[in-house]
From TrEMBL:
<feature type="transmembrane region" description="Helical">
    <location>
        <begin position="144"/>
        <end position="163"/>
    </location>
</feature>
<protein>
    <submittedName>
        <fullName>Putative PurR-regulated permease PerM</fullName>
    </submittedName>
</protein>
<comment type="similarity">
    <text>Belongs to the autoinducer-2 exporter (AI-2E) (TC 2.A.86) family.</text>
</comment>
<dbReference type="Pfam" id="PF01594">
    <property type="entry name" value="AI-2E_transport"/>
</dbReference>
<feature type="transmembrane region" description="Helical">
    <location>
        <begin position="33"/>
        <end position="55"/>
    </location>
</feature>
<dbReference type="GO" id="GO:0016020">
    <property type="term" value="C:membrane"/>
</dbReference>
<feature type="transmembrane region" description="Helical">
    <location>
        <begin position="9"/>
        <end position="27"/>
    </location>
</feature>
<dbReference type="GO" id="GO:0055085">
    <property type="term" value="P:transmembrane transport"/>
</dbReference>
<dbReference type="InterPro" id="IPR002549">
    <property type="entry name" value="AI-2E-like"/>
</dbReference>
<feature type="transmembrane region" description="Helical">
    <location>
        <begin position="62"/>
        <end position="87"/>
    </location>
</feature>
<keyword id="KW-0472">Membrane</keyword>
<feature type="transmembrane region" description="Helical">
    <location>
        <begin position="299"/>
        <end position="325"/>
    </location>
</feature>
<feature type="transmembrane region" description="Helical">
    <location>
        <begin position="224"/>
        <end position="254"/>
    </location>
</feature>
<feature type="transmembrane region" description="Helical">
    <location>
        <begin position="261"/>
        <end position="279"/>
    </location>
</feature>
<feature type="transmembrane region" description="Helical">
    <location>
        <begin position="197"/>
        <end position="218"/>
    </location>
</feature>
<keyword id="KW-1133">Transmembrane helix</keyword>
<keyword id="KW-0812">Transmembrane</keyword>
């Protein structure tokens, strides 16, 4: 007599974790292919509302896609040339900035010497070197630039995605076993990701524009470079604005002294407070629905898995995972672990409501029998 064997929960958990390790290792090994594809997907998501707006004015879809792609390519090439020129010019001016930095700190060194505290100029340059402060920023920009080296592949992928975007939801609905049940979940999933990416991009553009104009009015060198850095790093949660502000603040200290550096700090703090606490939540409703710890850990995880592009897209990628987990009955409990308090309570209420409805239906059927 054969006896059926059902694996235990522990064995299934270990098997699932082993599968995840294999999948993640494969993604990391194929990073040169995966990263441009992921970047193409998110750029296509951002472009979808613009394509829909142009087609509403009876512009052919193929023409709208080509016009938008031409605009994006021209803007990208222009920004790449300007940013590259600014970085090269900044590198040439580094000796001058180092000398100015020592002059700015000379009065501090004199005061310390009065208290018999000897600090050499080399120590000052070691801890407050403008080149060191810019290294993290330039490394991130270089990593993004390396991905954008496959510009033709990315553009072609975006074009084909935009042509297929109109029929993709219908194909997903038809491919599912129970399309009526999954219809609202897929629509909510696509709408949430699209809404977040568009709003985040617009907020990042506004942040970069305000920072660039403010630094230009203050007289800080290379305001366009710092505006692009502020735009890109605004996608990185928690620490992105700090990383973006460091090189600009240090350069302002070298050029304008402590007062000018304080003004730049106030500019960055004011812009990020207004955009992060008022503008972004105003258009995103109740917010991301992710806990602060999950946002920070996702930054580390996606940065390790996909590099700098993963850091820039860490929140959207984590939101996709969370929304996908919310869509399934069995995985909704995992989505609760990723959510903040309010979202976790809402998800738990939905699940309890679904369980109560199921119990009521079962009791009603039993009574009829």
């Amino acid at each position: 007599m054969s006896q059926s064997y059902s694996p235990s929960m522990t064995l299934r958990t270990f098997a699932l974790m082993a599968c995840m390790v294999v999948v993640l290792a494969g993604i990391k090994a194929a990073g040169s292919i995966v990263v441009p594809f992921v970047l193409s997907v998110f750029i296509a998501v951002i472009c979808t509302p613009a394509i829909a707006a142009m087609t509403r004015y009876r512009l052919p879809r193929w023409l709208a896609v080509l016009l938008l792609m031409a605009l994006i390519v021209l803007a990208g090439l222009w920004l790449a040339s300007v940013v590259g020129g600014s970085i090269n010019e900044f590198s040439k001016q580094l000796p001058v900035y180092r000398a100015q930095l020592v002059e700015q700190f000379s009065w501090v060194l004199d005061k310390l010497q009065q208290f018999n505290i000897q600090i050499s100029k080399e120590k000052v340059l070691a801890y407050f070197d403008p080149g060191m402060a810019l290294s993290l920023t330039t490394n991130t920009l270089s990593s993004v630039g390396n991905v954008m080296a496959n510009l033709l592949l990315i553009v072609l992928t975006i074009v084909f995605m935009l042509f297929e975007a109109e029929s993709l939801p219908r194909k997903l609905h038809m491919a599912l076993d129970d399309p009526d049940m999954r219809l609202s979940q897929i629509d909510r999933f696509l709408h949430s990701v699209n809404q977040y990416m568009v709003i985040k991009t617009l907020v990042s553009l506004a942040t970069g524009a305000i920072v660039g104009i403010g630094l230009w009015l203050m007289g800080v060198d290379y305001p366009l470079l710092w505006a692009v850095v502020a735009f890109l790093f605004n996608y990185i949660p928690n620490i992105g604005s700090i990383i973006a502000a460091l090189p600009a603040v240090l350069l302002a200290f070298v050029q304008l002294g402590p007062t000018g550096a304080g003004g730049v700090v106030l500019l960055y703090v004011a812009v990020n407070m207004v955009m992060g606490n008022f503008v972004e939540p105003r258009f995103m409703g109740r917010g991301l629905g992710l806990s602060t710890l999950v946002v920070f850990l996702s930054l580390i995880f996606w940065g390790w898995l996909l590099g700098s592009v993963g850091m820039l897209l860490s929140v959207p990628l984590t939101m996709i995972v969370k929304i996908a987990l919310e869509s399934g009955e069995g995985s909704r409990k995992l989505a609760v672990l990723l959510a903040d308090d309010a979202s976790a309570f809402a998800l738990n209420s939905v699940e309890n409501g679904a369980d109560a409805a199921t119990a009521n239906d079962a009791a009603k059927d039993k009574k009829e029998i």
